[in-house]
Design a protein that fits this description.
The protein is of the alpha+beta class. The chain folds into two domains: 182 residues, no CATH class; 117 residues, no CATH class. It contains 13 helices and twelve strands. The strands form two sheets. It has an eight-stranded mixed beta sheet with strand order 3-2-6-7-8-9-1-10, sandwiched between helices. Strand 4 and strand 5 form a beta hairpin. The two termini are 34 Å apart.
Length: 353
């Protein structure tokens, strides 16, 4: 077990100040939920690591909703303007589900034959500071997928909130460098504090299991979704979808994008990448001769079914892990009030599956 350190509540601000990064995005308090804020620009913002996870996922930090990926002219591509530009940045308040999402995105953008240089540059530059969920959101269901409400790897520093402050676990040289600057403000955790950490974590697990009782997504869900679900069952499950695509845009693992070109000046053009969604009708539309099928999935229900299948059936085959982390943000964002937990239970993803 890694050596743990104790940090008092009043020293949290000092910890953030010890991070050598131009931008420090931390989870800050809001009336209904927390959200990420650059505390370098808004130092008066109240950093809150004890509220439920932020409603917005950290995906936008790694894969912005819109970005320029190339600049070119009739003379060719401008290498300087087409290169990713990013400085060191810290993300504070990430959760265990967020780290799982990054693990998934790493497989998509860094694990194949072609690596995305923009994503890779941000991943290499970012400092990741995670925090245990002590107050899980009512929509969260990570334990039903085999996850935990705390990060186990991938972080530079992890914080566990306890009554008198935080326990710190170092996960990398970046994290150790931050800790070294704290000096006497951190101390080795006592046996009582270590026990409190175990209690806090177990309480969070019990809370999640209680609010998701009866849901357990096992390996068999893939077989069920691929072979046993009938079209009328999909229709009932997705009847309330309004095609807003909020579920895919808020999801920390959905990564579909659209590329288009536009003018950027006299004899100058740029290629832009923006988020796209498999829920939208135009997503699958294809060019072709008159009379050709314009889309392989013209129906909304089939597009909704494809999203669920991609998360729970195709991703395990393609990437060796589910495309869902159980963060519950899609439930929170859905205008049609569709609860993916209920959908999975109805389609065969309950305890017996």
């Amino acid at each position: 077990m890694a050596k743990l350190f104790f940090l008092g509540e009043r020293s949290l601000k000092r910890l953030l100040e010890s991070i050598e990064a131009a931008e420090v995005y931390a989870s800050v308090r809001r009336e209904r939920s927390s959200e990420y804020c650059n505390v370098r620009q808004v130092p008066e913002a109240e950093v809150s690591l004890r509220q439920p996870r932020p409603s917005a996922s950290p995906k936008s930090f790694l894969q912005p909703a819109k970005e320029r990926v190339a600049v070119y002219s009739t003379a060719g591509t401008s290498a300087e303007e087409s290169c990713p530009m990013c400085g060191e940045r810290a993300l504070v308040g990430l959760r265990g589900c967020d780290m799982k999402a990054m693990e998934y995105l790493d497989k998509v953008f860094r694990g194949g034959d072609f690596q995305d240089p923009f994503y890779d540059a941000r991943r290499n530059a970012d400092i990741l500071i995670t925090v245990d969920c002590v107050t899980p959101h009512e929509a969260c269901f990570c334990t039903a997928l085999g996850g935990k409400p705390f990060a186990e790897s991938g972080f530079d520093l992890n914080l566990t909130p306890i009554d008198s402050g935080y326990l710190l676990e170092v996960g990398s040289e970046k994290g150790q460098a931050i800790l070294d600057k704290m000096g006497a403000e951190v101390s080795e955790a006592t046996p009582a504090q270590l026990k409190e950490r175990e209690t806090v974590r177990q309480k969070a697990v019990e809370t999640l299991e209680k609010q998701n009782e009866g849901l357990r997504v096992t390996d068999r869900i893939r077989e069920v979704l691929l072979s046993e679900v009938k079209s009328d069952e999909w229709s009932r499950a997705m009847a309330d979808c309004v095609e807003c695509a909020a579920c895919t845009f808020i999801c920390p693992t959905c990564h579909c994008f659209y590329l288009y070109d536009q003018t950027a000046g006299p004899e100058k053009f740029e290629r832009v990448r923006s988020w796209d969604s498999c829920i939208l009708g135009d997503y699958h539309r294809m060019a072709g001769p008159k009379g050709a099928k314009p889309s392989p999935r013209p129906g909304l229900v089939s597009r909704c079914a494809n999203r669920v299948l991609h998360k729970y059936a195709f991703s395990p085959t393609q990437y060796g892990m589910l495309g869902c982390t159980g963060c519950g943000r899609c439930i929170e964002a859905c205008f049609g009030k569709i609860d993916i937990r209920k959908v999975l239970k109805e389609l065969g993803g309950g305890e017996d599956a």
